[in-house]
Amino acid sequence: MFRARAIAALCFVYILLAGPGILRAGVINPDISVIGQLLYKYHDDKAAPDARKPTLDLGETELVFESYLNPYARGTFVFTVGGEGLGTEEAYIDVIKGLPDGLALRGGKYRLGFGKLNPVHPHVYSFIDAPRVMKAMLPGEDGFNDIGTRASYFLPFSWSSDVTVDALKGAAFHPDETESKGGWVAHWNNSLLLGDVTPLDIGVSATQGTNNVLWGTKTAVYGADIKTKIPFSSLTNLTLQGEYFYNNSSVVVDTTTGDTSHMGRQGFYAFADLRFKQRWNAGVIYDQYNPVENKNLTNSAIKGFLGYSLLEETTLLRLTCERFKPENNPAVHTVMLQVLFSMGPHKAHQF
Asked: What gap in Å lies between CA 79 and CA 62, rounded to an integer?
């Protein structure tokens, strides 16, 4: 029954987007992509019911509809199909031309531009899932994603520099409340060359929103990010990337009186990713952070990852081995194997 409803819903979306093009070859026929995955997992977390029991699951399927609406604007829809049914992960419009020099606008629901990893989908990562520090520090249950409007502007510097500012509905800061109160995100990114061929990206981010609408308590997160890619040959390069996060939140400690306390937590991740022979990559990522349960503790994780593409980027195999060490608790070891397969122009990973 669920599968039939999902197929019917997707057919409706396709007709809605491409209906005029069914009758004639119109410019709004969208590019359609489907990205699926198989996920094998084994771990030794004694607190989980499936400890030491290998599991094989069909992860989320991602459906992407993209098209230029006209020479000045582009529309994007991203739907996910998983255990909770059909969901809208992103639905937004980009106005990229026709505005004052260097200005671009976006409106809708989308992954927010905080740092380097959050704006892109996890299937683009070299590893299988996001670093643990991101979920611990950023608002939202499945990535920092919200309804908002964005203005982007290229600054007139001698190097490439741009700033983006988003005005948000704010639901990502308080997902369990029906009433919403606004928030904002800002990111400043700078790109330059070290020598003639080595790029360097440096950015800073900030966001603020209300984590409890009833009592008006707020969460602010500040971050800094850096990335470089060192080329060794036409088929071999090393990517080095890291981000730092500082989360400063007011938390309600007594729901009767509304008494609050301030909690400051920090964390970071850093990884090295070596790509070689075009179809292979291997690396290691480390992250650590103060968990929301106790700001005085420090959790850490180190993960090795290996990836291989069958012929080209439409089919990817990824293997990760992680050691997660919560402070004052035993370490948890996890092995994951992922098969990513994609159809359409939106690939699982672009070389």
From this structure: 6
Contact present, 43 and 334 (Cβ < 8 Å): yes
Contact in structure between 250 and 236 (CB atoms under 8 Å) = no
171: number of Cβ within 10 Å:
23
Domains and CATH numbers, the chain: 34-64+84-343 (2.40.160.10)
Mean pLDDT of each 10-residue bin along the chain, 351 residues long: 47 48 56 94 92 92 93 94 88 92 93 95 90 95 93 91 96 89 96 92 97 92 97 94 97 78 94 94 97 93 95 86 95 96 74 39
Closest CA to 205 of 182, 227, 224, 184: 224
Question: What are the helix (H) ranges across the chain?
Answer: 2-23, 132-137
3-state secondary structure of 66: strand
CA 121 to CA 306: how far, in whole Å? 19
CB atoms within 10 A of CB 84: 8
* 297 within 8 A of 289, measured Cβ to Cβ: no
- Angstrom distance (rounded) from CA 335 to CA 319: 7
Helix/strand/coil for 91? strand
For residue 176, the Cα-to-chain-centroid distance in whole angstroms is 21
